[in-house]
Amino acid sequence: MNNLHDDIPAELPQEVFSDLLSAGSVRIERILSRGQTSPESGWYDQDEHEWVLILQGGGELTFDNGDCIRLGPGDYLNIPAHRRHRVSWTDPDQTTIWLAVFYR
Amino acid sequence: MNNLHDDIPAELPQEVFSDLLSAGSVRIERILSRGQTSPESGWYDQDEHEWVLILQGGGELTFDNGDCIRLGPGDYLNIPAHRRHRVSWTDPDQTTIWLAVFYR
């Protein structure tokens, strides 16, 4: 057993990505953010689908059609493969914990 | 966008299972419990692997080798397919929110 709050660094100069599970067609990842965003030109264009949940903190996703969605604790969203998106905001005042399930 | 705290009934005479995502080899389910347990003889013996996380509340899993693991908020665990287990306790005083990712 492990906990999503384990090993959270006091300082987060960069986002931290940790695989919690990797098994064939599924990967579960914890992402820690504190104010980081994707670079302006940094669209994610992924081969895998991604189901994403925020456990703590807040983040905002912007899609290349202009949609902009702000997520808080408990909010979840499915991002189909190749739906281009970027992280346009994360809470600068606390550590945001994302849970992402990547699947094919 | 949806939230894991949406549609939580005030009363929970039975556990409530809701599919949040179902796609090929992956299924993500929310489970709500309030004091329910598996029947004494009610072992889960699943064809799928299950990665389980508690978001709120508490629950306890007992395995057929005698292992007994109590989970609280943020705790997660991977249960391989056919590892026989039952839910031996859930918090009677609050609604427990489980997130389960079933995969093959």
TrEMBL record, chains A, B:
Superkingdom of the source species: Bacteria
UniProt-listed InterPro entries: Cupin_2 (IPR013096), RmlC-like_jellyroll (IPR014710), RmlC_Cupin_sf (IPR011051)
SUPFAM superfamilies the UniProt entry points to: RmlC-like cupins (SSF51182)
Domain Cupin type-2, first and last residues per copy: 43-102
Official protein name in the record: Cupin domain-containing protein
Record organism: Marinobacterium maritimum
